[in-house]
Amino acid sequence: MSMEWKYLFLAAALVALSGWFRFYSQPSTFIHHQQVRATPKISFYKLSLQWPPATCHGTLRCKPPIPSDFKIHDIWPQDRYDEPIPPYKKKNPCTRKRPTLRKDLRIKLHTVEAHLTSEWPNLTDGLNMTANYKFWGSEWEKHGTCSDYPDDPLTYFKSALKLRRGIKTIVRFGRQTSWTVNQVADEVFYVLKAYPQIACNLNPSRTQKQLWEIRLCYDRPNPGQTPHILINCTHILRVRKGKIIGPCKSLSDSIFFP
Ligand SMILES: *[C@@H]1O[C@H](CO)[C@@H](O)[C@H](O)[C@H]1NC(C)=O
Ligand SMILES: *[C@@H]1O[C@H](CO)[C@@H](O)[C@H](O)[C@H]1NC(C)=O
Ligand SMILES: *[C@@H]1O[C@H](CO)[C@@H](O)[C@H](O)[C@H]1NC(C)=O
Questions:
Q1: Distance between CA 160 and CA 226 in Å, rounded?
Q2: How confident is the model at residue 39 (pLDDT cuts 50, 70, 90)?
Q3: Are 248 and 237 in contact (CB under 8 A)?
Q4: Which residues line the pocket of ligand 2, CB cutoff 6 A?
Q5: How remote is the CA of residue 159 from the centroid of ligand 1, in Å?
Q6: Which atom of ligand 3 is nearest to the CA of 193?
Q7: pTM over 0.90
Q8: Does residue 28 have a pLDDT over 80?
Q9: Residue 88: how many CA atoms within 13 Å on its side-chain side?
């Protein structure tokens, strides 16, 4: 056989083989899909706002001054079971776009850096830009790379800033007071007309549950938009794989607002 004929023969054999393979591999793919939960799809976004006096007296060691208004922790894409959308990995190529690399965030976020520093600081050392970019970089890798904006971190970060700026009041009660989880949720519902998720942490001596975070849920926006329609969160207490996590276990738990 000439060289060309050899290649033609090989090509034909390959086509035949791949057709056979596709045909016979279908039943097993089908079974596989029934067993494994389908690739998670974004259902809504969760804006997580932390109360710095609780974060800094319980979870982190912070350099003063400790802010006394709610600061952004992150905005998370969640699936319909209220589980976080997993981050981008070679094994989880959630998008065909190439997610922006963490090392490029400094260039991409340059124009909103001051605004991020004020509303989304790394509370450990909020005026240290290296610390801030470390925080934004890790949140970006974990939650931004499989959001609706994998190659557009500026829009991702700005979407949270915009939501935060739109909320003047979250709760009307003063500091150094105690409430049940349910009362806090009702208060947020009264003010914002949507039920939040409440996250608690423990004070440094681990004797008291504290109001650590209030999380707000937003419908997944249409393409070209950012989250803006508040919806009720599905779980007032934090749930992971069907189980309540964190120190607060019941809506009647009493929590301190430091
Ligand atoms: C700023 O933060 C970085 C790492 O997050 C740290 O290595 C550095 O020492 C900090 N700078 C100052 C002045 O504290
Ligand atoms: C926040 O800053 C501290 C101090 O620089 C650093 O050690 C820590 O890793 C940063 N947090 C995150 C989540 O990157
Ligand atoms: C949220 O839940 C409350 C109480 O169940 C209900 O009255 C309200 O209509 C819900 N809001 C939305 C946006 O679904």
A1: 9
A2: confident
A3: yes
A4: 122, 124-125, 128, 131, 134-135, 138
A5: 28
A6: 11
A7: no
A8: no
A9: 22
